[in-house]
Amino acid sequence: MSFLHLTHVTKRFGDAVAVDDLSLAIEKGEFLSLLGPSGCGKTTTLQMIAGFVDPSAGEITLAGQPLAGLPAQKRDIGIVFQSYALFPHMTVRENVAFGLRMRKVNAHDIGKRVDAVLALVRLDAYGERYPKQLSGGQRQRVALARAIVIDPPLLLLDEPLSNLDAKLREEMQVELRRICRSAGVTTVLVTHDQAEALALSDRIAVLRQGRLEQLGTPSDIYRAPATAFVGSFIGKMNLWDVAPTAESGGRMIVRRGDIVLGAGLVPEHARRDGALAAGVRPQAVAFLPDGEARVRGTVSTRVYQGDHVLYVVATPLGDITVLAGHGSDALRVEEGQSVQLGWADDDLCLMRGDAP
Amino acid sequence: MRRLPWKPLALTGPALLVYLVVLAGPVFLMLLLSLQGGKGVAGVTLAHYAEILGDGYFWEIYARTFVMALVVTAVCLLIGVPEAYFLYRMRAPWRGYFLLAVLAPLLVAVVVRTLGWALVLGPTGPISNTLVALGIVQQPVSLLQTMSGVVIALVHVLVPFLVIAVWSSLQRFDPDTLRAAASLGGTDVAIFRRVVIPQVIPGALAGAVVVFSLSATAFATPAIVGGRRLKVVATSTYEEFLGNMNWQLGSALAVLLLVVNILVVVGASRLVEKKFAHVFES
C-alpha cells in the first residue's frame, strides 16, 4: 500500500479539463516530481492534494485515509509556495513557529524545534530578521523550515526554485535535496524545469494537458522516453514520425523514405497501436567518415557553448541538432561544411508518436 | 555660494502659491484673529485662549468632540477592516458592485444625506416605528440630538475612507499567505487575527487618522442630527462667529481644534512608521 494515492483524479473548471483521470502512487519517503509545461495540470494536482481545490472526480488518500472533505487546516501537509508566502510582519523565528503555535505546542518545545529546523536550513543566525531583510535564497529556506517544522507526513513544493537566479538555483537544488533527505519526508515537487526534476527526484511524473505521459526514475525518463513529447520536453531530441514495421528480436528497423534510421529497440510502451516516433539525442549524433554515415548534410549553424559545441545540420531528414563534446575532432567542423552523420542503433529511441 | 534650485522652484511654484493663498493664508489670518483684542481687551493677547481653557463649558465641548471622534473612528475600524477584507475576497463582478455601494455615501451631498438620517432617526422614522410596532417601546423614540445618532450618521459617511485605505494595503497582500497559514493549521479566526490584521494595520491606521480628523471637524452632521443640545467644537465655532459675533473667540476655538488634530495625525503617523517600518520597506 503506497503512502499517497491518487485514483482516477479529475478536475474540471467549467468546460476545461485541468487534470484528466490521473492515477499516481507515491511511496513513503519518496521524492516525486510532477513535471510539465504550464497548463499541464501539475499545480492543480498539488492544490487538490493540499486541499485548496476539490477534485471533480476520483479519490486522494494519504496513509490510507481519504482526504475528501478534510479542509487544508486539518491535513497536516507542509507546503512551500512559489512566492514563499512568508508572513511579512513576523520575524524568521515567528514565521517558523506559526504552525507550532497553531498546534498549541508549549513555548519551550517551540523554541527547541525552531532552533533545530533553523540549524537544518543553516539560518541559525537570522532568527530575528524580517523576511524583507533576507535574500531570495534565504527566504526560500525560511519557507522550507516553516513547512517542515510541523513534521508533516507529506511536503509539497510548488516551483520552489523558480524565483531564484540560475546560479543560486543550482546551489539550492543541492540544499533542498540534503534537507529533504535528512528530514526523511515524503515530498511532491511541482516544476516546469526538467533539470530540477532530474536532479532532485526519485521518480518523475511527466504531465501533459492533464494526463500522465510517463512515470519513472529520472534515468528511465531521460534514456527511454515513452512518448515523443517526453523525449523533447526532457533534454533535447531529434524526432521523426515513422511507420511501424515488422519486429525481429525485439528490434524494429525504421526508415524515413529511403533513409534507414536504424534498428531501434522496441520498448513495451511503444508497442501499442497508433503513431510511432523515433528520436536520437544530439550528443549521440556523431560526424562520421563517408560510407558509415546514415545521412549527409550541410552545417548551417555552429554555436560555441564552452564545454561543447552545438551544430544544426540541414539534411534530407530535416534539421538535425548535434552536440559535440570537449576534446572531440568534431569541434573543428565549420559552418557550410558538408558532413556525414551517424548514430548507434542503441541510441535510437522508439516512442509513442504524435510528435509535437 | 550655493545657487538657488530654480528649476524645482519654478515647477512647484504655481502649486505652492495656490497652497499658500488658499490654505495657509486663511489659517494664518485666523491665527492672527484669535490673538487680537476683542471686547474690552486691547492689542495682542492670549485672553481668548485663557477664556476657553478656564471655562468648563468649553472643556466639555472639546471632550465631547474628541470622544465622538474616537468612537466614530473605533466603529469605523470595526466595520471597515472586515468590510475591506470581504470585498478583497469577493470575485468580479460582485466586488465592483459592492465597492460602489461602499462608496455611495460619498456621492450624496452632505446636507441631503444628513437630512435623510434626521428622518430615519427621528420620532416618526422607521426605527422608532419598528420598535413601537414590535412592542419593544411604548412611546416613539428619537435618536436625534443624541450622541448615538450623530455617531451613526458620521460612521455612515466616513467608513468609505477607512475601507479605501485598508483596500489599498490589501493590494500588496499576498493571498498565498492565507493558504500558507491554513496549511499550517490556522483556523479562519486565527488567520484573520494573526495574518490579515497585522498586514493591514498600516492601512487601517492611515484610514483611522483620516476618519478621526474628519469626524473631529465635522459640522453638518452634528449640527443637523445633534442639534443645539449636542454642541461640538465645529458647531460652537460657527455659533461664536455668526451667533455671538465673537470672531476672536471663534478663531481661538478653531485654532485649538487644529492644533490637537495636527498632534493626533502626526503622532499616529510616527507610530505607524516606527512600528511597521520593517514590514513594508523594500
What does the secondary structure layout of this molecule look like, with pairings?
The complex is a heterodimer of chains A (356) and B (282).
Chain A: E1 4-13, E2 16-26, E3 31-35, H1 42-50, E4 57-62, E5 65-66, E6 78-80, H2 92-102, H3 107-120, H4 136-148, E7 154-158, H5 166-183, E8 186-191, H6 194-200, E9 203-208, E10 211-216, H7 218-223, H8 228-233, E11 238-242, E12 247-248, E13 251-256, E14 259-265, E15 276-280, E16 286-287, E17 295-304, E18 308-315, E19 318-325, E20 338-342, E21 349-352
Parallel strand pairs in A: 3-8, 3-9, 6-7, 7-8
Antiparallel strand pairs in A: 1-2, 1-4, 4-5, 9-10, 11-15, 12-13, 13-14, 15-21, 16-20, 17-18, 17-20, 18-19
Helix pairs in contact in A: 2-3, 2-4, 3-4
Chain B: H1 6-35, H2 47-53, H3 56-89, H4 94-103, H5 110-121, H6 126-133, H7 147-170, H8 176-183, H9 188-216, H10 220-226, H11 233-243, H12 247-280
Helix pairs in contact in B: 1-12, 2-12, 3-7, 3-9, 5-10, 7-9, 7-10, 8-9, 9-12, 11-12
Instruction: Give the overall average pLDDT of chain B.
Output: 89
Largest interface: A-B, 31 and 23 residues
CATH superfamily of one domain in chain B: MetI-like
End-to-end Cα distance of chain B, whole Å, is 37 Å
The CATH architecture assignment of the largest domain in chain A turns out to be 3-Layer(aba) Sandwich
Order of secondary-structure elements of chain B: HHHHHHHHHHHH
> Approximately what portion of the residues of chain B adopt beta-strand conformation?
under 5%
Helix/strand/pairing class of chain A, anyone? alpha+beta
Number of beta-strand segments of chain A: 21
Can you tell me the CATH class of one domain in chain B? Answer: Mainly Alpha
Mean pLDDT of chain A: 90
Could you walk me through the main structural features you see in this protein, from its secondary elements to its overall organization?
- The complex is a heterodimer of chains A (about 350) and B (about 280).
- In chain A, about 25% of the residues lie in helices and about 35% in strands.
- The longest helix of chain A is centred in the middle third of the chain and has 18 residues, at about 165-185.
- In chain A, the strands form five sheets. Chain A has a six-stranded mixed sheet with strand order 6-7-8-3-9-10, sandwiched between helices. Chain A has a five-stranded antiparallel sheet with strand order 16-20-17-18-19, with no helix packed on it.
- Chain A is built from eight helices and 21 strands.
- By secondary structure, chain A is an alpha+beta fold.
- The mean pLDDT of chain A is about 90.
- In chain A, helix 2 crosses helix 3 (about 105-120) and helix 2 runs parallel beside helix 4.
- Chain A has two domains: about 5-225, Rossmann fold (3-Layer(aba) Sandwich), CATH 3.40.50.300; about 230-350, OB fold (Dihydrolipoamide Acetyltransferase, E2P) (Beta Barrel).
- Chain B contains twelve helices and no strands.
- The radius of gyration of chain B is 23 Å and the shape is globular.
- Chain B is an all-alpha fold.
- Chain B has a domain at about 55-105 and about 140-280: Orthogonal Bundle (MetI-like fold).
- The interface of A and B includes residues 90 and 98 of A.
